[in-house]
């Protein structure tokens, strides 16, 4: 369940159609017990809302912003242009171009305004959640411990997967 009290992370997306992907970032934040806020904010359909969100993000106590969008995916870059908080961009897989458009829209930021861009689609959303936790872990030692546990669980899964080689 989303913990929205005093959120440290915002997970925003250009459309509700991005939720299938972006909920994987939220799943990670839930798993690590990180409070977050989730919201649809469109760079094109609600530009004023986007500007208001970005300008007030730090003042509102946020520490990291995860922004997902597909197609002409301007949301992460335009939020990054209006805040100095770290922004992680998730390219959502598009129907027309399989997410190439999303990826290139997000990754090719001009020098001076960074967006940490993840892989396209589900892996990218999961990694966005993890990267946000890793950023917070620099200041929150309990998250560093949980990250160690998470990595160990990945190792165990690999070891267990040998049983499937029959
Ligand atoms: C982008 O356009 C959204 O991020 C979404 O990935 C894409 C399509 O949006 P919908 O037409 O499904 O609302 O702004």
From TrEMBL:
Pathway as given in its UniProt record: Purine metabolism; IMP biosynthesis via de novo pathway; 5-amino-1-(5-phospho-D-ribosyl)imidazole-4-carboxylate from 5-amino-1-(5-phospho-D-ribosyl)imidazole (N5-CAIR route): step 2/2
Reaction it catalyzes: 5-carboxyamino-1-(5-phospho-D-ribosyl)imidazole + H(+) = 5-amino-1-(5-phospho-D-ribosyl)imidazole-4-carboxylate
A molecular-function term among this protein's GO annotations: 5-(carboxyamino)imidazole ribonucleotide mutase activity
EC id: 5.4.99.18
Family: Belongs to the AIR carboxylase family. Class I subfamily.
PANTHER family the record matches: PHOSPHORIBOSYLAMINOIMIDAZOLE CARBOXYLASE, PHOSPHORIBOSYLAMINOIMIDAZOLE CARBOXYLASE CATALYTIC SUBUNIT
NCBIfam families cross-referenced by the UniProt entry: purE
Function: Catalyzes the conversion of N5-carboxyaminoimidazole ribonucleotide (N5-CAIR) to 4-carboxy-5-aminoimidazole ribonucleotide (CAIR).
Name the record gives this protein: N5-carboxyaminoimidazole ribonucleotide mutase
Organism: Bifidobacterium myosotis
């Amino acid at each position: 369940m989303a913990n929205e009290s005093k959120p440290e992370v915002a997970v925003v997306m250009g459309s509700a159609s991005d939720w299938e992907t972006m909920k994987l970032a939220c799943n990670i934040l839930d798993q690590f017990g990180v409070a977050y806020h989730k919201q649809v904010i469109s760079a094109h359909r609600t530009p004023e809302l986007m500007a208001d969100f970005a300008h007030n993000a730090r003042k509102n106590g946020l520490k990291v912003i995860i922004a997902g969008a597909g197609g002409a995916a301007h949301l992460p870059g335009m939020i990054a242009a209006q805040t100095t908080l770290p922004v992680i961009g998730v390219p959502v897989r598009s129907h027309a171009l399989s997410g190439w458009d999303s990826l290139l829209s997000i990754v090719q930021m001009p020098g001076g305004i960074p967006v940490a861009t993840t892989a396209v689609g589900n892996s990218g959303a999961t990694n966005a959640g993890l990267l946000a936790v890793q950023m917070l872990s620099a200041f929150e030692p309990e998250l560093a411990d949980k990250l160690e546990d998470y990595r160990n669980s990945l190792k165990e899964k690999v070891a267990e997967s040998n049983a499937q080689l029959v």
